[in-house]
Amino acid sequence: MRTILQKVVCLFVLFTLAVSCGERKMTSEELFEQCASGVVLIMNEYYYTIHLPGGGNLYFSDLDGEDMVGLTADQSEIMANRNMLFGTGFFVSEDGKIMTNRHVAAPQIDPAEVKKSYRSLIQAIRTVVEYRQLELSNQYNQLSVQIQNSTYYDFYGYAHTDYSAVSQLTAQQQELSRQFDELEELKENLSMDVSELKIESVCELGIAYNNTYVASEKDFKGCVVTKVSEKDDIDLALIQLKDKKTPATAHVFTLPGQSKKEEGLWEKVKRVFGNDEKERKITVNEPLYMIGYNAGIQLASTSQGIKAQLTSGNVSQESDGVRLLYTIPTLGGSSGSPVVDEYGNLVAVNFAKVSNTQNFNFGIVAQQAANFMK
């Protein structure tokens, strides 16, 4: 009995040590070495489709004020003139799932602005159609005058008509009438009612790995969007490799409540008994590190392939449970980057900068990312 009691006490002591002992702080070099392999450069080529109520589609690449850039009814034309953006993502599973921002994976556009632009477009087309109809009417009337002049009276009062000329002029009038009627039908079909217009983004996604060569778009590995947050304040999305296989050498980031890829016995004990799922409180001025692709392919490209960058800063404001403010400098392309603490734990997903600054940025806290994954 005493022996059993001694073993229980011994196990309890070991368990207490396992739970209470802190994780080892890492240097920035160690953090980068551990995490960079799991951070990917995302390329998104995209355009927008307008599904018309009467059937058919229109395509455009962006909005410039009230103008739809690259507007066309030819899908092959818009495919050759798609928008392109770069962002960052990181692996969160063994089956190729990658966390990033919604605005990287599925760029949104304001439907109200598109409908406003469409209404302006329709009005402009109607104006052009009506002007063309006026031109056709004037031409028709001029031909009528010529037909009248094709008949003349001689000295004795007898009428003479050039029937060949009249036939030609009448045929021209019939053609003008046909064109006028076609334009009238077009004008009637140009509905100003935009309530039934449907707008969607069409995206083609690919990723490139840190420390690999990228010579063209073909070097990006194909991905699909699997989940997009429907909450306005949770700018997150999941994309997944088409082959559903995370590279064996890639670091997989652990979200709150998940077991780590390589979890030892005592890590399991701590997770099960140590309330490891409880979100760790992030303190003001705590050092943080971000690994990402600032400025996209522009800064990432080196003579040795693309390279992620590590930047650092500090927590500058207490989290509200949704987002975290920190002083890590960023450039466009860093959206979706993982933000980690000194122990390599995921703290946030970078998503936005404070206006007119580069050194104050927001991240979606890791617990929200974990909730989104469920």
State the gist of this model.
This protein has 374 residues and is α+β, with helices and mostly antiparallel strands. The protein has helices at 2-20, 28-35, 75-79, 102-105, 111-149, 163-189, 265-273, 297-300, 366-373; strands at residues 39-51, 57-60, 62-64, 67-69, 83-91, 97-100, 151-153, 159-161, 198-209, 221-228, 237-241, 287-292, 301-302, 305-306, 309-317, 323-326, 338-340, 346-353, 361-365. Helix content is 33%, strand content 28%.
Characterize the structure shown.
- The model has no long low-confidence stretch (mean pLDDT 86).
- The radius of gyration is 33 Å and the shape is elongated.
- The longest helix has 39 residues, at 111-149.
- The chain starts with a helix and ends with a helix.
- It has a domain at 26-110 and 199-373: Thrombin, subunit H, CATH 2.40.10.
- It has helices spanning 2-20, 28-35, 75-79, 102-105, 111-149, 163-189, 265-273, 297-300, 366-373, and strands spanning 39-51, 57-60, 62-64, 67-69, 83-91, 97-100, 151-153, 159-161, 198-209, 221-228, 237-241, 287-292, 301-302, 305-306, 309-317, 323-326, 338-340, 346-353, 361-365.
- It is 33% helix and 28% strand.
- The protein is of the alpha+beta class.
Provide key terms for this protein:
374 residues; 9 helices; alpha+beta; six-stranded antiparallel barrel; elongated
